[in-house]
Design goal:
4 copies of one chain form a homotetramer.
Chain A: E1 2-3, H1 14-22, H2 35-48, E2 54-58, H3 61-72, E3 77-82, H4 86-89, H5 94-97, E4 102-105, H6 114-126, E5 135-142, H7 153-165, E6 170-174, H8 177-181, H9 190-196, E7 199-203, E8 213-217, H10 226-232, H11 241-250, H12 255-276, E9 280-281, E10 289-295, H13 296-302, E11 306-307, E12 309-314, E13 318-324, H14 331-340
Parallel strand pairs in A: 1-11, 3-4, 3-5, 5-6, 6-7
Antiparallel strand pairs in A: 2-8, 7-8, 9-10, 10-13, 12-13
Helix pairs in contact in A: 1-11, 2-11, 6-7
């Protein structure tokens, strides 16, 4: 069936499979101590303009969020996120499983405001009972957000200033980072992000890899014996090469950016098509996820022919659905969609 | 200094100390296997009208909430609470420490609405992605609430119907239960509460004991080997007698109710006094906690003479403070307060 | 460099990569809801002779052990393992991270004895203080063990009888199960294992896959909402196909067994070679891991030319090392080893 | 019934009850911010000869062990203990509940040897795979041990040297510290212990208090925002005065030492009596716990008249039982015991 359900419904970019094939017989050390992992780390540090960064590969997004957050928070701290943040809603309580609270603040099309973040932290310290409350010990945001929206450089800088002032790390969830960086509507580069955050990750699973996320610790702040904490949480792959080879490929000849750009171009075409057909957008998204409001019966009819993602109900009669393009979306798929709509 | 700061600023009711003294030389088994603990359990079951109930004594409120919730939730579940619920704000993230999320719904003067609770659960199951989200596995409410307000029998019955329909336990935090039961403005009896909840606790720390809360499992639903889970969480006292003797005293000759009633009478006098003096109330509370809005400078002046509880800021110029009476409040204290105001 | 370091130092079996390539463009649902995952599950159930079994794919061994154990144990329970069990020594405390203790009993060349297991459990219940101790709530064993040894059918049956008598699940860690099943020295079949255990897993990572372990719940005992618990622990891959396609390939035309057999044949040749060269064996292993005692200087010399696995020190002068063959070991590698030795 | 079952089978020392009574009407701040708690801390610091120490009161032993250990360990660390250490056997897995492993080394009449401790840590770092194993991050010992035995100054100094060399804290569980300090057979003073450990606690529950343990951080090493971590684990009492007043009393006019000495004198009499009657001792204990080997039928007969503590079975015919004296044991009780024996 035709699918715009998500950006992980196909396998991997052909060059990744090719690289896995080519390196398959090479004997390599396990647990990420192989040469491809090292090379991939080097290339990512260069792309970030941060020779001193520390890079670590993990298998999936929820795992990455949980491991990064729970190893960086102190015992008495929680992580602040927009109420729609992925960790707050859609990760089955994995932050809580690690013993920490997600402290939520309002969202605006998926984004947090620096001003509201600052007010939240200020109010916390102004509260005379705060020693009995969970301390804000980290800020989490996703870029693109769960709604496909993007922070501007000014917005991210403002948030960065707050976290810097309160000396707590800023963590950017980049599960779809490529799609954010290659949007027409962004003034944030990878180097900006590396500079403005304390830790972030470059998503692979949704951007052409079979699996894998590249965590970048930007301030020599990787937790001590991180590999041990990763294993303790079940996140250490024996064949670390699987992640190393993939990211080494993605960061060779700008493949990561190129395929991300493709998804954006496809998203623009999709947007035009949906607009042309008169669909109502739930919000304006500059990346690969597009949110459309459908009457419930329209949704039921459409989903028989195109796989879409349920987002949320609006009252009893309408449903918000998500159309996603990806590195693998083809013109042919868009044409078939046009016919169906 | 004169204090209306809280309901735990004095020791224990004299009869409790007397009982501790009287039983002091008696050799007793440890860990709650003593005769006073057994007698106390029996008396509580009778007061609840529930001969089949299981009663267990713990030392404090946060501990009780954490132990009850974390032993009753399944792995994939969280607990639903009003956003102002004590577990959600003022317990340092102890539910999260146990690996579970607190799922928040709106509050109305500290109370949740059955309709909003039901909508929350319904929406959860209507969400096509709910298998990746934290399941609502229990409902937590406090009675009196953190704002001193009370559920009516109709309201609690409506919430009970929701939890019954979804087959999840309803847990009532009764840290100040006595003050709720003895309010003039309630139609809920202890037996009603025992009938309408799956588990609740009768607070001792704030109602005349040195420490101690009596958990009542109303449906033969005490978790298996509960004593083990209590010890695992550090909550088992070697001298279980300390809790047993206290609750045995509190539930002899209706002492618990009598001293709770005293606090209510004192609260009524306090309310009259505050009204007479022209203070603005933050909300109407029928129990022992009274919330008043003060100008910040007034607050600063007043707190030099009377210990009060900071509640929250309203903008930059006003502060909500709490006056609390208790089983130990004296007429003399009210008179001194009148002089100061 | 020549390597007998472990059984995960090369990529995947060519047929697996081929299948990944072939299915790469197929649009599939995420999170294990795809047709290849379903097909793989079906094939595994057939291979186990258990049409009613439930099969679930996870990415790695530590993750699998942690998820299975922590979702099946009750709050007051721990898991019993031989002191050399992988969960007890080499998984960075991941079972403890999940809140449960590993209760250790003696090992005999890596194996536990049914008699000692039974005595341990009996003693636990005979201890009058056992309500304050961690209850034995599951038994964990690895087959092959960490020392390459194998349980006989009689031994596994005896252990099964103990766990059945005490109504606790028996969990078999089959990270290298293929190598155990294809050994010349075993009378245990896959069907026997499915019958004698409550849950076990069929290792992929060490037997030809890029990553992946197939957990088999044999008694309709998969924990409710297991996918949620998996996600909560960071173990859910968005592209579940990665695991599904691999296991579908491994269980087509007996590939899993065939490549396991290859490793055993290579191990037999290796053993002969080592014996011929006069090496002293630490113990007699019938599977793909061979343990040899080397003088420390010999070890230092050898490791410059052949990658080996450090196992343990014996006093100050000797070291136990592990040689491992795998599905990917070649005759040429054995020849090169012979030259070096 | 006559009882030598344990040292917590009576209430509190009369002076403690008297002090609770005397301070009962005094209005005090909650959560340990009261003047009695401050005074108690000051007296304990003086008794320890450590003006810079930080003292914190908790309610019980398991709670104290769990809170101290889990707040001081780093993510990748576990705590080393003798295999008979209380945390390893009799605390329902509470250290594991906090996410950390108890790493066990051999015991010798309840004690660990510095040499075996050092070997254990050395071996850990010598193991080439140790990055995948739980790091030894703290050493736990009890003094007196679970068998009533005591470390000599030389032994404790040797252990201290090991922990100092590896820069990990040494934690001494002093649940029965008074009985150790007042033994005839010790050369360790309270000041020695304060000097040789990084953190330890002075037990109250078993030495005359209703409940309560005084944790002493000796090196300005109390974890940041400790009160928050305590609350998070359910260990914060609203009426901190209950602990403060008790310890203030115990450390006034050497009461703690005086009542501990009484228990030792009673133990010496008990020992003489048991020897006279021909009982076989399981080991030689210089403190208030005495372990005796009884034939099973003898045990069954005796326990009908005297409450004793089951310790362990020896084969099928004998049982080790514990007789304990305490601050509250009377000469009359010893006389009654003599009659019975």
């Amino acid at each position: 069936m035709l699918s715009f359900e998500n950006d992980y419904n196909k396998g991997a970019h052909p060059k990744i499979l090719e690289a896995l094939l080519k390196t398959n017989d090479t004997v390599l050390s396990g647990y990420g101590e192989d040469q491809f992992t090292k090379s991939a780390k080097q290339k990512i540090k260069e792309a970030c303009g941060l020779p001193e960064a520390e890079v670590y590969f993990l298998a999936g997004g929820t795992q990455t969020n949980m491991i990064v957050i729970s190893t960086m928070l102190r015992d008495y701290e929680g992580v602040v996120a927009a109420v729609t943040g992925h960790i707050s809603q859609h990760e089955a309580g994995s932050i809580e499983y690690s013993g920490h609270e997600v402290l939520t603040i309002p969202e605006h099309q998926g984004k947090m405001l620096a001003s509201e973040l600052e007010a939240f932290i200020k109010d916390f310290y102004a509260d005379e009972n705060h020693e009995h409350m969970v301390f804000p010990g980290m800020v989490y945001l996703s870029h693109p957000t769960e709604y496909g929206t993007l922070y501007t450089k000014e917005e991210l800088t403002a948030i960065h200033k707050v976290t810097e002032a309160y000396e707590i790390p800023l963590f950017l969830d980049g599960a779809r980072l490529g799609y954010g960086l290659m949007s027409d509507d962004t003034d944030l580069t990878l180097k900006d992000i590396a500079e403005l955050t304390d830790v972030f990750y470059i998503g692979g699973t949704k951007v052409g890899a079979l699996c894998g996320e590249a965590v970048v610790f930007t301030k020599k702040n990787m937790p001590a014996h991180f590999v041990n904490s990763v294993k303790k949480r079940g996140g250490l792959l024996a064949k670390g090469r699987v992640l190393g080879v993939q990211f080494d490929t993605l960061f060779t000849d700008d493949l990561y950016f190129e395929i991300s750009r493709h998804a954006i171009l496809m998203a623009e075409k999709l947007k035009d098509l949906l607009k042309k057909k008169g669909y109502r957008f739930f919000l304006e998204s500059p990346t690969n996820q597009q949110f459309v409001i459908l009457k419930n019966d329209e949704y039921e009819r459409l989903r028989k022919e195109v796989a879409l993602s349920f987002w949320e109900k609006i009252g009893d009669t309408e449903t918000v659905v998500r159309f996603a393009t990806s590195w693998a979306t083809t013109d042919e798929e868009l044409e078939r969609l046009e016919e169906i709509l």
